[in-house]
Amino acid sequence: xxxxxxxxxxxxxxxxxxxxxxxxxxxxxxxxxxxxxxxxxxxxxxxxxxxxxxxxxxxxxxxxxxxxxxxxxxxxxxxxxxxxxxxxxxxxxxxxxxxxxxxxxxxxxxxxxxxxxxxxxxxxxxxxxxxxxxxxxxxxxxxxxxxxxxxxxxxxxxxxxxxxxxxxxxxxxxxxxxxxxxxxxxxxxxxxxxxxxxxxxxxxxxxxxxxxxxxxxxxxxxxxxxxxxxxxxxxxxxxxxxxxxxxxxxxxxxxxxxxxxxxxxxxxxxxxxxxxxxxx
Length: 280
Hints:
It is a single chain. α5 (228-236) runs antiparallel to α6 (248-259). By secondary structure, the protein is α+β, with helices and mostly antiparallel strands. The longest helix has 16 residues, at 209-224. It has helices spanning 23-35, 85-94, 185-190, 209-224, 228-236, 248-259, 263-276, and strands at 15-20, 52-59, 76-77, 97-106, 110-115, 126-134, 139-143, 146-148, 154-158, 164-168, 174-182, 201-203. The chain folds into 2 domains: 6-203, B-lactam Antibiotic, Isopenicillin N Synthase, Chain (Jelly Rolls); 209-276, no CATH class. Residues 1-7 have low confidence and may be disordered. The strands form 2 sheets. The protein has a 7-stranded antiparallel β-sheet with strand order 1-9-6-11-4-2-3. β7 and β8 (146-148) form a beta hairpin. It holds the Pfam family Asp_Arg_Hydrox. It comes from Winogradskya humida. This is Aspartyl/asparaginy/proline hydroxylase domain-containing protein.
């Protein structure tokens, strides 16, 4: 197998490294993120394994625990943002028309499963910005068969309407400021990104048939013993190890249950694939 040097791997089109941030700004953001937030909310349970938590900084209610994303053309600061002056300054300085802003904490061993975003919203052009505040090398985004570590010190852009997932394999916790914004001149000016630093992106290998067969066999054995969650997780995690076709991990789970003559479970995972990837 030919190994591509990490430094030669371009970012996928869905991701861009944009504005640099001053180290003093990053330190202020990190201090606030680690000391101010309390009572994180676990939402979107079907999309994760339980280690992803959020709090809102901008929304239409002012309640930081209101974290279910929806269209919000006139957001206002939440009670949490009012206690975080560095976050306020950054949001104001970016100048984009914000729809929603939140802090997202991804704990060690946590996964956000492969999915698309914005499918439940109307078809207004909107974009997502990430500002990593606390991270580690084992925390990365997967999109298009490429894993991307969003490094601290940059504003990043993600196109979340493409299938993607996130993991933090070993910790410590990753904390990002996530800003959903509408398309406007300020966003387009910001979106003139420069080159990513070497090491930000790495192409994942294609899985061999033997690897897939072995993982399916292991998962099937777990399901036969009644460990459905462990079986499903073993197959879902393939997305973070190999370059899989869109929805392939969900297909493997459905096929596993079909092979066990558990037709209701197979159909449930076919339906879940459609919901997660916006195919319904």
